[in-house]
Amino acid sequence: MKSKILTSLVLGSALVFAGCTDLEVVETDSIVTAPEGDFQGVDAKGNLTSAYNALALQNTQENLYALSEATTDELFIPTRGTDWGDNGVWRDLAKHTWNSSHQFNLNTWNFLNSTVYGTNQLLHPATTKTPLQEAEAKFIRAYFMFWILDLWRQVPIRQADEGPEVNPTILSAQEAVDFIISDLEAALPVLPATKSGEIENQDVASKASARMLLAKLYLNKHIYLGATVNNADMDKVIGYVTEIEADGYKLQNGFFQIFSPSADSETILYSNGKYDSRIWGSLHYNQGRETDNKNGGWNGFVTPAEFYAKFEGPTDENLEGGPQEERRGYVPGEKLGIGFLIGTQGGPGGPVKARSGQNLVFTKNVTSLTGQPDYSGIRLLKYHPTINMPGSNANHLMIFRYADALLMKAEALLRKGSTAEALTLVNSLRTIRQATPLGSLSEDDVLDERGRELYIEGWRRNDMVRFGKFAAQFVFVEDASPDRNVFPIPDVALGSNPNLKQNAGY
Amino acid sequence: MTKFYLLLGRYLTVLFVVAASTAMAQDRTVSGTVTASEDGTGLPGVNVIEKGTSNGSMTNVDGGFTVTVKEGAILVFSFVGYNTSEVTVGSQATINVALEPNVTALNEVVVIGYGEVNKRDATGAIATVKSEDFVKGIIASPELLIQGKTAGVQITSSSGEPGSAVNIRIRGTSSVRSGNNPLFVVDGVPLSGDFISAGGNDYGRGGSTPKNPLNFLNPNDIESMDVLKDAASTAIYGARGANGVVMITTKSGRNRKNELEFNTGISISEQARTYDVMNAKDYLAAYASLGGDPTLVNYGADTNWQDAVNRTAVSQMYNLAYANAYKTGNYRASLSLDDQNGIIKNSGLKRYTGRLNFNQNFLKDRLKLNLTSLFSHVDDQAAPITNTSGFEGDLMGATVFYNPTIPETPTNIAPARFGQPITQYNSDASNPLALLKYYSDNTMTDRQLITGSLGFDITKELNFKVSGGIDHSHALRESAFSGLMSKISNVAGFGRASIVEQTNRNQIFEALLSYNKKIGDNQLSILGGYSYQKLETFGLNVLGVNFGDQTNMEWMINETSAANQAVKEYLTPGWYQYEYQEDNMMRVYDLFSTPPSVTELPVASNPGLPLIGPRYINGRNFSGEDEIQSFFARGNYNIGERFFFTVSLRADGSTRFGQNNKYGFFPAGAAKWRLSEEDFIPEFFDELGLRASYGITGNQEFGHHLYSGRQQYAAPGVNNDGTLSGVAGLNNVTFANPDLQWEQTSSYNFGVDYGFFNNRLYGSLDFYSKNTTKLLIQQFSAQPAPTPFVWRNLDANLMNTGVEFSLNGVVVDNADWKVNIGGNFAYNKNRLKNYTGGALRTGAINGQGLTGAYAQRIANNQPLYAYYLREFVGFDENGLNADDDIPRFVGKSALPDFNAGLSLSAKYKAVDFAVYFNGQFGHYVYNNIANAYLTKGAIAGARNVTSEVVESNESPVNSPDASTRFLEKGDFVRLQNISLGYTLNLDPGNFFRSVRVFATGANLWLITDYSGLDPEVNVDKNIDGVPSLGIDYTAYPRAKSVTFGLSAKF
Predict the structure, then answer these.
(1) CB contact under 8 A, A496 and B454
(2) Measured between CB atoms, does B658 come within 8 Å of chain A?
């Protein structure tokens, strides 16, 4: 009896001690890169893939694209009855009445910064990487930092080995410009010299894409620093674009071909990601159903009549074979148009119907941001789901292309005073786009030309700020204060990091 | 008080004995033993009286007695705490009697952590609900058995779906981000707080919540549920005690001698309320009145789409149990079948359970063995009802707004539009019947819970017990959408099938040493223990796309499963993630190679690759493991049944905590003073006790391994058209925080227990204050950062203060009539204090034009789930919103101020009747259905609405922004249960021991001003993981039902 008691006691106690654990877990579906916060490096290849994937993610409609386009004179989203109310976020963008709690502002802040952090992990000494991987990571970091600088003028910095207890330090605009330039200059010699038309290599960073970004930075630098135009900066712009041309990049004949997945002479960098918002954001619900997207468009984004008027052609129609310039596209009778869609819309089974059951006729003028019917507003379609994009979700989103570089060069020349040279460049573009050459060139002409060429490619806000036209009373803007040139630091970001200071006016 | 009766009893007995000895000599001498029925031990001090006389005796220390009575006398055996028994002496010389314990509320036993205690002696705030008081009717989720039965326990099922997830809040909500459900302990095994099956796959119409993990328990197997509410009772569960603990005790064979029990019931349910949307005629007229051309939307029929998808559902349940108690032990075995059909077509739950509980004592009861094993199999069928569908709506949304002129079974009307089958025309909505026809969703869940314990009395005072348990579940959710389903962008024309398999394994080992010693009138109990628990989760996700117009969804699932199997065999075992497109390539991700790699294998040049049916498939598995190691001790000291003291301490080490805080310590102390034992308290009080307690408890219900930086390959993505998308990169999934620790709640409780009029009126009153600190919050990361949020312990305070009151009365108690009334009432106030982080959004509002809309904010000095909305002030002359378009706090919250329950039971001879009401008051419900679908713009867009919408002066182009326009008072009183039973009067020796037939009505009456279907609703509308409360959106509707049943014992 006694022995049994003893046995059970001993057995029980043994179990107690055998059961004691050090509470360490083995991860079986994730890799630990910072055990207990101690950063030990990441896999360079997998992280670089994520960084490149971010180039496509910027395109979703509730992120950088919304801030860069839906705030400008080329795009807005009216509330259509019950549609697109979306808690007023789109109206705030169109009215320039956003505040520090605007959701898209926060989305963009988080998205851009976390991509920068991913590249910091890759660039940390603890990560094993090739010189090329390092150069690519530096390019991507520079690209995303450029946007942070552009939108908020404050760039927070956190090293990969710093935990949540560390408050990131903030680079001033000058420091950020220097940081981005030094990244790009370090990357430039290592990046490949991808030539024009080498489409298979244009979805990764090249010397041309680094030069393009450097040119962008020098072109905007005086804005970021609150200074006046500096000729040395303009020379840098001209120099970088000239180097891009040396790799064979030139204007492409056939405007909408540039936005197809096939090779062309203009593409410098594209992203292999989806871009539904560019295709479907603008189309009516009943449009595009003949594609493999049986649900049609989202009926959101439209162009103000004032912007449409900047193109050559009849003001109230845009018919196929009409006299309008190439970039405005056309509306054929029995299928989906391209470019700007106005008037009666056709489809394979006859005219497309509006919600009321009447024929769908896109009207030109939208007088109010609310109370709009489903058919109001001019639609825009640069990436076409059937003409130049087989499949409703083809992966070919333009990031950098040569026409932009050419217009930057023209702008730099103009700002330096070399107006004639600039006019020649602009007219070379207009000629190939089947538009009448200009007789003279003003700053406004350059901004308009950039609008006609680069609409919905994500540069409009940046351009309008640089030309001093963003903080102005256009279309639905209610607050024309220059403070609107930069976005507010999101309120939750301010709360997360005491080193951030709210931008003026918010 | 008991002592008083004992003394009185003894005194009277002495009087009787004296009286008897002076009387004449009697005719017959009878002797025997009186035992307690539950354990067969002799009962000393039992009064043995000849009926109608003062003649009698009292049992000795072994329960023996001798008494001399007249021929033909009746002996009455009475003893405090036991039912009185009468025996006709007849010619017997020996009479042995076993007295049944008289279980009343105040002397019932309550189950606490690692033990049990007499309710009267309990120092903590504990509510017990025994099986006979459970909510009746057809019930899938065990939590609902005690809904409204206890003060301070708010139980809300997320919808009316059979077996849907249930929210339980004990004494308010004490966590902002983390888990808020209590810890469930089934027969001593603490369950994992995780879901054990997957939620509905989001095919573009929103995801849905997984089923309730407790569905594996057969309600008929549950003996009692004890809710431990204050820290004094829950601190013994340390880092998991802060949300309260629910102890579920299942039935054993104790007190059941050779008893065969059979229960059966049949229920008839139908949708309790529906939306009063227009018929075809009114719909067409309304559309025309807004400028639409009715001929364009008229398909000629008059269909009520709600009636087209709902049904009168018949459910059945069968229970069979055999139990037997014998001298050295007992056992009980049971089998059950529940077949619950949902009131929405294609939904329901089928549950099979088998259970065995076996207790055996050895060595003259010094060694006690307990074994329980429970097996269950649950089949869930789900209809396409989701939480977050957009303007297209899910099944419930579509039944509200779908064009009523479209016939249920179309014949040669209108040509197919856009290449879709003709059942689905209409520009932007899904046909409800097509949604049912082209969707299939089944979950099979198997769960086993096996426990065993061995306890040994080393000495009379010292007991050592070891116990172990395994809780293993395996759930397989298979769902598919046919490519014939139109209007769903990634489904139409392609079809999708999804398989999610999940296994949870929870193993526990515990060792307990307990010491009980009587010191004079005092009693000392000490308990010390060790517990080790390991919780593992693993499983896989598989997606198949490109089945064309295939309508056989079972085939789609089988093909996907077979393809996954073939690919898995091709891959090396272990972790895997792949994407496969038969006419293109297979992409294999290897996370654990050095370095991690992605391999692309062109299918054409790799003949070894398996040939699979579907054109695209991806798969990925997941796994994780957590451990909890604990040391705990508790001491109880009872001074003469007057003063009771409890002290407990638990140290919990958990793999959820970072290295700087691996162990947490959770102390608690409580005291009780039974004033009724004191001379200065009037006799009027049968029971009067004061309780006070203080303790610290924790909450560790947050994610797995968040203190290290970790990466995973992004989940495989597929283009909407079923083609391969880009290569996934390595993504950060955590922001390392080695300081992470449990959330800490310190709480006070002051309580009074009382009983009057011979304890015919009794109850308790409790005041509590809970202060939760080190709040686990996913704060916004200071960018740049690996993840948008970082889990941190924040120095804010979440305060819950409240009052709970319960009162039960035995109004009538005589031979024919028995009437009981019971009520409970609770008030809770919730505030977030000292919170300095940014306001957190929650309560996503979905629907047409409502992307990004939300209704609630978590902010300082506000209650949780405070509504943050535009203040609706009506429409302007143009019918547009006249408000200032600026959301703000509107001073209303989704948290009820008051919860109340009221029950009445009556028994007249063989007929019993019970009625039970519950209610919640002071909270607001956001009617997202009205916001999304019941607006002028909806009817202008040819979507059906109610006639009130048409009559309103809203403009058809007004934007229904989220505002107080859709915020409504949620107050309600529900007739939860009404039942009528009849117990057959059977002679002893009948084949049946007892037979009862009954009818129960559930949810037959609801009093509320809420305009939606039911204000008791909680659709999961979290944003970034911040839970929401009180949002009503396309929830599975609640049923009203009548159950007819029979229970028989043999």
Answers:
(1) no
(2) yes
Contact A12 B466 (CB under 8 A): yes
Judge whether A292 is closer than 8 Å to chain B, CB to CB. yes
State the Cα–Cα distance between residues B498 and B545, nearest whole angstrom.
9
**Pair of tokens at residue B781:** 């990361």
Of B560, B566, B571, B600, nearest to B584 (Cα)? B600
Closest chain A CA to residue B468:
A15
**CA B774 – CA B700 distance, rounded (Å):** 11
Residue A287, both tokens: 């449009």
Nearest residue on chain A to B392, alpha-carbon basis: A295
Dihedral over alpha carbons A3, A7, A9, A11 (to 10 degrees): 180
pLDDT tens across A261-277, in order? 889 999 999 998 777 88
CB-CB contact of B664 with B741 (8 Å): yes
Contact assessment for residue A79 and residue B849, using Cβ atoms and an 8 Å cutoff: yes
CB contact set of B14 (below 8 Å; sequence gap of 6+)? none
Q: Which of residues 463-502 of B touch A (CB under 8 A)?
A: 464, 466, 486-489, 492-493
- From the list B236, B224, B314, the residue with the least C-alpha distance to B269 is B314
**B39-56 pLDDT, tens per residue?**
667 777 788 888 888 888
Chain B residue whose CA is closest to A9 = B464
Amino acid letter, residue B890: V
The residues, any chain, with a CB within 8 Å of residue A253's CB and separated by 6 or more, are: A432
Q: In B, residues 30-89, which contact A (CB 8 Å cutoff)?
A: none
Least confident of A476-480, A486-490, B202-206: B202-206
Q: Which of residues 387-426 of A touch B (CB under 8 A)?
A: 391-393, 395
Residue B730 predicted with pLDDT over 60: yes
Report the residue count for chain A: 506
**Rounded Cα–Cα distance for residues A346 and B416 (Å):** 19
Chain A segment 69-108 residues within 8 A of B by beta carbon are 79-89, 91, 101, 103
Residue pair B855/B845 in contact (Cβ under 8 Å)? The answer is yes
What pLDDT sits at residue B40? 65
Q: Between chains, do B848 and A36 touch, taking CB under 8 Å as contact?
A: no
The C-alpha atoms of residue A158 and residue B716 are separated, in whole angstroms, by: 29
pLDDT, one tens digit per residue, over B538-573 is 999 999 998 888 889 999 999 999 888 888 888 877
Mean pLDDT of A356-373: 86
For residue B423, the model assigns a pLDDT of: 55
Of B503, B450, B511, B499, nearest to B473 by C-alpha is B503
- Model confidence at A184, in pLDDT bands (50, 70, 90)? very high
- Crossing angle of helices A231-246/A207-225, nearest 10°? 160
* Closest in A28, A29, A49 to B729, CB measured: A49
Q: In this model, does residue B895 exceed pLDDT 80?
A: yes
Element holding B684 (H helix, E strand): none
Listed by start position, the domains of chain A span: 1-191+471-506
Of A42, A101, A158, the CB nearest to B730: A42
Cis before residue B784, ω within 30 degrees of 0? yes
The CATH architecture of the domain made up of A1-191+471-506 is: Alpha Horseshoe (1.25)
Q: Is the pLDDT of residue A330 over 70?
A: yes
- What is this model's ipTM? 0.88
Q: What is the pLDDT of residues B675-695, one digit of tens each?
A: 988 888 888 888 899 999 999
B428 touches chain A (CB under 8 A): yes
Give the Cβ contact number of residue A247 at 10 Å: 18
- Percent of all residues in chain A with a pLDDT value above 70, rounded to a whole number: 94
Q: What is the pLDDT of residue B549?
A: 80
By CA distance, what is B940's nearest residue in A? Answer: A356
User: For chain A, how big is the Rg over CA atoms in Å?
Assistant: 26
Structure tokens belonging to residue B57: 């005796």
